[in-house]
UniProtKB/TrEMBL annotation:
It comes from Shinella sumterensis. This is LysR substrate-binding domain-containing protein. It comes from the Bacteria. GO terms for biological process: DNA-templated transcription. Belongs to the LysR transcriptional regulatory family.
């Protein structure tokens, strides 16, 4: 019986019992009187008892119906309470999925402002380089790197993913300063196989920088590349927008104004059919207001 519990019929029964009328129950539930009568009949046939006595111009609960009514009303109330509690808990927790670099270099430094403005919304942050499937992953919004053309998602650009070489001032001084792009090739190149390097050198007028002579390291994230550069161990190709604090503190130095972009930026993305969920709307409005210059 638990597998075929007729919840809809029980809901109709409870309304009809409460109103003492199939017509008024139908009005409450948006059903016709005939549809209400049909659901009650199905329930009676399943249970093998008569629940209502049909009298001229009225229906009256039978003895079996009187016994069933309070239990059904209590059960439906508990279900409604459980669903309401779950929905409330879900509404108060915002699950953000982000790339590791954006999470470390921007979200971790700014999310406190969002929580000050929205103290009733708790934040859960997950990080991964993977592009998640919202239909399979438990996330409300995602910060993605790409072109913002994902089907079924609303997307808002939040940061331009420009890139340019950066290094520590001390490393630049070690070779008497970095005055031309070719000077960079006198220094260790961090993540030399990154396509950004070849794009930037080409834009700087160096079509064959000889990057293959450097170790083919792959460190995984810009944050790690930046730490190598801050330590004076090489030149990294980075997005300046991520490292403003390090530049301001004199830890990183951008020797050339030339920046490039390969058409991929950071985007806030979420399912289009959830655009009006309050917590998603609150985060969207906050991040777009906080990063207007970037967006």
């Amino acid at each position: 019986m638990s597998r075929s519990l007729p919840l809809n019929a029980l809901r109709v029964f409870e309304a009809a019992a409460r109103h003492g009328s199939f017509t008024r129950a139908g009005d409450e539930l948006g059903m016709t009187q005939t549809a209400v009568s049909y659901q009650i009949k199905l329930l009676e046939e399943m249970l093998g008892v008569t629940l209502f006595l049909r009298q001229p111009r009225q229906v009256v609960l039978s003895e079996a119906g009187e016994r069933l009514r309070p239990k059904v009303a209590e059960g439906l109330a508990k279900l409604a309470e459980a669903v309401g509690d779950l929905r409330g808990a879900s509404e108060q927790k915002l699950h953000i999925h982000s790339t590791p670099t954006f999470a470390l270099q921007w979200l971790s430094r700014s999310i406190g402002d969002f929580q000050l403005k929205h103290p009733s919304i708790a934040v859960r942050l997950s990080t991964s380089q993977d592009v998640i499937d919202f239909a399979k992953e438990e996330a409300d919004v995602a910060i993605r790197w790409g072109k913002g053309d994902w089907p079924g998602l609303d997307c808002h650009r939040v940061m331009r993913m420009n890139f340019t070489p950066m290094l520590s001032p001390a490393l630049a001084e070690a070779i008497g300063g970095v005055k031309t792009p070719s000077d960079l090739l006198k220094l260790p190149i961090v993540s030399a196989r990154d396509d950004w390097w070849r794009s930037w050198f080409s834009a700087a007028g160096i079509d064959d920088p000889g990057l293959e002579r450097f170790p083919p390291n792959e460190l995984g994230t810009q944050t790690i590349d930046a730490q190598v550069a801050i330590a004076g161990q090489g030149v990294a190709i980075l997005n300046p927008g991520h490292f403003r604090s390090e530049i301001a503190a004199g830890q990183l130095f951008q020797p050339f104004e030339l920046t490039c972009n390969d058409g991929r930026d950071y985007w806030l993305a979420y399912p289009s059919n959830r655009r009006n969920v309050a917590k998603i709307r609150a985060f969207r409005d906050w991040i777009l207001a906080t990063m207007p210059a970037e967006a």
